[in-house]
Amino acid sequence: MDDQLPALRLVGLRKQFGRPAVDGLDLLVRRGEFYALLGPNGAGKTTTLRLVTGLLAPDAGTIEVLGVDMTAAPAAAKAKLAYLPDEPMLYGKLKPFEYLEFVAGLWGVPAQDAEPRARELLDWLDLSQHAHELTEGFSRGMKQKLALAGALIHDPELLILDEPLTGLDAAAARQVKDLLLAHVAKGGTVILTTHILEVAERLAHRIGIIRHGRLIAEGTLDALRERTPGGSLEDMFLHLMAAP
Q1: What is the reported pLDDT for 168?
Q2: Neighbouring residues of 9: CB distance < 8 A, sequence distance ≥ 6
Q3: Which residue has the higher pLDDT, 128 or 166?
Q4: Could you give the CA distance from residue 4 to residue 225 in angstroms, rounded to a whole number?
Q5: What angle do CA 153, 196, 63 make, to 5 degrees?
Q6: Neighbouring residues of 213: CB distance < 8 A, sequence distance ≥ 6
Q7: In angstroms, rounded to a whole number, what is the distance separating the alpha carbons of residues 56 and 59?
Q8: Is the pLDDT of residue 4 over 80?
Q9: Under a CB-based contact definition with an 8 Å cutoff, are residues 244 and 238 in contact?
Q10: DSSP the chain
Q11: What is the pLDDT of residue 230?
């Protein structure tokens, strides 16, 4: 794999549902990068992620995941990524370890590799003490953490998350953030959407802001701060959202 190959490249991406949801979006995310995608409700963030993961077909444009075209070779592209939606689906009659074994099997992870990986993830996310409980009784935060473990079980090169910290308490949010940072530290790429600007400030290498399905600002936190007199990401974000 060419180290210079981007983790994600979008060119002229378009999708409409009566009106444009994603409108000619160009985006490049580098390998080993933590990228935060920000925008108001209805900006096109979730639609963009669903297009990238192959859950929706674009009306126009190209999507490349680590050099693999999502339209031309969807199975090969999807094998390189994992997606955690804002409302993850679990199987309520499975226990955490059973769920992770099941997901690992779907990804073709050998059992001898899946078992220690599952135990490591459950320990990291403080779920080991719930290993013998059915997931149907889990809190939202516990379900969110288990779904993240499922997304990471096959060690994807590109991890895509839609509002992963929604509904988590401070301790659970810290566990999730630490796990995402560890994934990036070992060479993985993370793209997430969030309404929590502090998360983008603390974690992201670069931040992209979209409005009406278009990228209207992008850069490091310092670069974006320079665009606004107030100097904060919040000031800059609100300024861009108020612009005509």
Answers
A1: 85
A2: 27, 28, 29, 62, 63, 64
A3: 128
A4: 28
A5: 55
A6: 15, 20, 21, 22, 23, 24, 25, 43, 44, 47, 48
A7: 9
A8: no
A9: no
A10: --TTS-SEEEEEEEEESSSEEEEEEEEEE-TT-EEEEE--TTSSHHHHHHHHTTSS--SEEEEEETTEETTT-HHHHHTTEEEE-SS----TTS-HHHHHHHHHHHTT--HHHHHHHHHHHHHHTT-GGGTTS-GGG--HHHHHHHHHHHHHTT--SEEEEESTTTT--HHHHHHHHHHHHHHHHTT-EEEEE-S-HHHHHHH-SEEEEEETTEEEEEE-HHHHHTTSTT-SHHHHHHHHHH--
A11: 64
Tens of pLDDT, residues 26-48: 999 999 999 999 999 999 999 99
CB-based contacts of 109: which residues, under 8 Å, 6+ apart? 117, 153, 154
**Rama region for 91: left / alpha / beta (φ>0; ψ in -120 to 50; rest):** beta
Strand order in the sheet with 81-84: 81-84, 158-162, 189-193, 34-38, 206-211, 214-219
- Residue 2 scores a pLDDT above 60: no
pLDDT (mean) for 110-125: 92
pTM for the whole structure:
0.92
Structure tokens at 144: 């969110």
How many CA atoms lie less than 13 Å away from 26 in the CB half-sphere?
4
Beta strands 158-162 and 34-38, pairing class = unpaired
